[in-house]
Design a protein that fits this description.
This is Nucleoid-associated protein YgaU. The protein has 3 helices and 11 strands, in the order ββββββαββββααβ. The mean pLDDT is about 80. Helix 2 crosses helix 3. The chain folds into 2 domains: about 130 residues, Elongation Factor Tu (Ef-tu), domain 3; about 50 residues, LysM domain (Membrane-bound Lytic Murein Transglycosylase D, Chain A, Roll), CATH 3.10.350. It is an alpha+beta fold and about 210 residues long. The longest helix has 13 residues.
């Protein structure tokens, strides 16, 4: 089992010593409202951001009995701390992976605390907290009058269509429109209801949706 942080540029950091335990905090969001004399009521608002936290240390010397990797790839404690600090100030999410488990999620490094112990010179102990990230999705809402205001520009790409010409075949259309005649089956899959069971039964004037 390995604990890995990986950014979008391909930089990967494997923690040299696995933590003894990992805490994953999950909470459900609620909005509390007071309704006249009936008291307070909670309304579920979806899940809150999940937190993942664990503690371990960066050993100065490589010990194959508990260290991951090899002696040559073993990071110096200062180098390992600098890598975590880079992830901490990153403005884009990074991927957190625990191999042999289902944990493989985009996160931000929320906090990184280090501790130096006098009796173990050179080793650096740390506490790390990660917060899971998900892309924000904004739903359309009506204005104060109950009527939607001017709609925002639709960023969703519209489906492209093709009008069948005499002498056309699905492979010819795929070559012309998609650059690869072997993609005819993708066109057929999208338009099977209109074409029928025979992919060669397309007719001039028929409009086909392209992938």
């Amino acid at each position: 089992m390995e604990f890995i942080l990986k950014n979008g540029k391909g930089k990967e950091f494997i923690f040299p010593v696995n933590p003894e335990e990992v805490t994953i905090s999950r909470q459900k969001g609620f909005e509390t409202a007071t309704i006249l004399t009936f008291g307070e009521f909670d309304f579920p608002q979806g899940n809150k951001i999940k937190e993942i936290s664990f503690s371990s240390f960066f050993p100065k010397e490589f010990d194959e009995s508990y260290c991951k990797g090899s002696r040559d790839s073993h990071p110096k404690p200062q180098t390992a701390m600098n890598t975590l600090n880079e992830f901490l100030v990153s403005k884009t999410p990074i991927q957190f992976i625990i191999t042999e488990t289902a944990v493989n999620v985009p996160v931000f490094v929320a906090s990184h605390q280090t501790t130096f112990r006098g009796g173990e010179q050179g080793d650096v102990y740390f506490d790390l907290t990660l917060r899971t990230w998900s892309e924000m999705k904004v739903a359309k809402t009506a204005g104060a009058s109950g009527i939607n205001k001017k709609p925002r520009a639709d960023m969703k790409e519209k489906s492209k269509t093709y009008t069948v010409k005499p002498g056309d075949s699905l492979s010819k259309i795929a070559k012309l429109e998609l650059g690869d005649s072997s993609k005819w089956n993708q066109i057929y899959t999208l338009n099977r209801q209109a074409i029928g069971n025979n992919p060669n039964a397309i007719k001039p004037g028929q409009k086909l949706v392209l992938p």
